[in-house]
Amino acid sequence: MTARTRRAMRGLAIATAALLLSACTGLPTTGDVQRGNPLGASPEGQDFLPLASDPVDGAGPEEIVEGFMEAAITPADNWDTARRFLTPELASTWRPNTGVSIDVSAATRSFSSNIEDDSEAEDGDTADVRVAFDQVASVDATGAYSEAFGASNSAFVVERTKGQWRIAEAPDGVVIDESRFARVYDDYALQYFNQTWERLVPDVRWFPRRATVATTIAQSLIGGAPSPWLDPAVQSAFPQEVQLARDAVPIDTDQIADVALNRAALSLDPTTLARMRTQLQATFVAAGVQIDQVRFTVDGRALESGVVEVVTDTADAGSLVIKDGTFGMLVGGEITPIPGVTDQILNAGQPVTAIDVSVDSSHAAVQLIDGHVWLAGEGGWDELDARPSLVRPSLDPYDYTWSVPSNAPAALQAIGSDVAPQPIAGAWPEASAVSAVRVSADGARVAAAVVIGGERWIVVSSVIRDETGLPTELGPTEPVAQLDGSAAGLVWLGADRLGLLTDSADRMVVTQVVGGPGTAEVAPTDAVSIAGSRVATGLRVLGADGAVFARTGSAWSESITGVSLLATRAGH
Length: 572
Description:
mainly beta; 40 strands
């Protein structure tokens, strides 16, 4: 990894349960929400937020500003502790929720003031304080996370009042170091519908961990919009004219979230209300909010609303492998062949280098050692793409096989079972090379490892489809993380995380939040490929000696040996 990637990831190897919370939570398709863990709790136990200290009597201008920035780690009671470092006038107007600047460490901040000796300062005197810090990321007012490397600074005016220095002028937002960011803030996956109202697509945002997070989530979903890069492929069930009628979402003793809406909701049809309820309930579930159901009200009266069924990702049945001369699903040490697929693959006539099996196991995209991509299924064996230098193919949930030459990213195609290639417009226009492509299980997003301006990046884009589900175009390219080398493997882990095996001498496994930070760890010895999973903890790695490794706690454990190829499942 590059120095900046290592720096961005350093200190972000936080409690795994907290990082993986939303990816490990299932979404209901019918009925009411089932109660999960209490808000802020993980299966391993309760997380504790760091606490800040009040101003110290006699502290100088620089010490007051430093204490104020440290107090930003405590968002409780609307940052009440931090506001004690401000003058009363500023305390009433300072807006901490406008954004977050994430720096390397509180220890590396430098403070300077135009007053060296404040011993003779009187009430009404002021001092200018400037803080320089090394920024690595930021979170905007909507909760969207992005890398932002470079030197940054903040300017403060400190005023002497009642014998103490207090901050009279300060920028809105907070600065927090990366080691504590993920202890104070958590990722919450807002849910949006795809273009056909059949699937839910996550959009990760970062909000402070606090008891009122249900209100923050509801405000962001109902009054906000999808991230710009995702917007072309998704839609919200909440009409623009429908808004929260109060800035609170109380949860009663029966675990019902009471969501008060304005009167515009009275004119909505039952289908729209059901979609709204489904979307918000699914968002609460993904966030770990402890509710049994959402209830919409207008002027205190409940609105009758059901839920709609949505397509969800299928459970992992086991690893897909070639072992002992056969291909299929490995469960309990035995391989179950896939009818209409296994025989076609085994009779390919060439060594197989990659297999991606469809969601329903009816067919598979297969790459042979000569690089050509074929479709196996229902007894058929059809060549899909014979262009040179193809990357590994990726099936999407609509049964289109995505294929692209590594040296021509703009030549991306989606090929259906009719073997008719569909050019995908807008495929990474700034990229000069691509080493991996992976479509998500919802079919609304595609991740890729590309080269842009000589730098290697993991990027994501929205997938725009026509009314039949045919992909036609990619939305804007959204950078996710920078890498040193190309990708030996790229997969989805759950709904909002990516797994990457780096192609370098010291191979690493990167778990990357789409819209958040990532963590990196050393891969098992001689790792050659990876397979994803519907949950972030289900990543599997194949070693050169045929051993498949899986996560057991914080270590890799060998789960099976003698495997010659580890296949993937569409969307994972």
